[in-house]
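Anyone up for a design puzzle?
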């Protein structure tokens, strides 16, 4: 296991956005339809809360691959993720808590939404479980899991939410994506913009005045096979 300094150097040396080659054979042959259930996760009272997702889509969660698991080194659990949260998340995605750290990856550093309302110190982690289950952790801000219990052939290969931040912070869109996703855009009112994929993750700070009075954003996911689909993200600041 690398220490914190070695982990950051390895992260910086890794190729951002590199994805494992994707084959149509890894895609399921049919499109499933199921109910959409998205829970926004927020920092409450200085502590982060975890949400569990049951979503719709074309593939079984993250089973098409998560290249960052191979391109980035194993990360140490940060102090901002409690032992109880680690154990619950690990069990929910089919991992033994003692071994889950081997599949934890530091996906992004230097994000605006940092721990304890800090700015520029945010870190986003991804944890890949069994059979396409996965979790993300934006330390001391937000976390979410696509659990084995909710994982079906209809589970979308993306976990995304709008994180409101602490009262003095601006919100951000945060998430992780599987290898079969080629692009992600978001429409907020009349404005549409790309969310670059870096190390199987998306992150974008939002301007409060741009999202005022808008209750939902439209996230559109494009796949390597040319298909796409859209779903709503709830604005917790509306």
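Challenge accepted. My sequence:
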């Amino acid at each position: 296991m690398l220490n914190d300094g070695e982990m950051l150097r390895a992260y910086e040396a890794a190729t951002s956005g590199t994805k494992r080659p994707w084959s149509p054979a890894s895609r399921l042959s049919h499109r499933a339809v199921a109910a959409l259930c998205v829970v926004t996760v927020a920092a409450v009272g200085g502590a982060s809360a975890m949400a569990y997702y049951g979503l719709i889509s074309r593939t079984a969660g993250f089973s098409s691959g998560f290249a960052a698991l191979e391109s980035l080194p194993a990360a140490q659990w940060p102090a901002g993720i409690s032992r109880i949260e680690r154990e619950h998340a690990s069990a929910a995605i089919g991992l033994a808590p003692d071994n889950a750290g081997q599949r934890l990856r530091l996906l992004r550093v230097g994000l605006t939404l940092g721990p304890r309302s800090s700015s520029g110190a945010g870190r986003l982690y991804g944890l890949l479980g069994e059979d396409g289950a996965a979790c993300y952790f934006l330390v001391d801000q937000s976390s979410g899991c696509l659990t084995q219990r909710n994982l079906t052939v209809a589970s979308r290969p993306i976990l995304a939410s709008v994180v409101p931040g602490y009262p003095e912070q601006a919100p951000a869109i945060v998430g992780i994506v599987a290898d079969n996703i080629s692009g992600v855009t978001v429409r907020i009112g009349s404005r549409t913009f790309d969310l670059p994929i870096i190390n199987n993750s998306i992150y974008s700070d939002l301007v409060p005045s741009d999202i005022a009075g808008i209750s939902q954003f439209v996230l559109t996911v494009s796949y390597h096979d040319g298909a796409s689909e859209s779903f709503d993200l709830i604005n917790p600041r509306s």
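A detail worth pointing out: The chain has one domain: 4-11+33-234.
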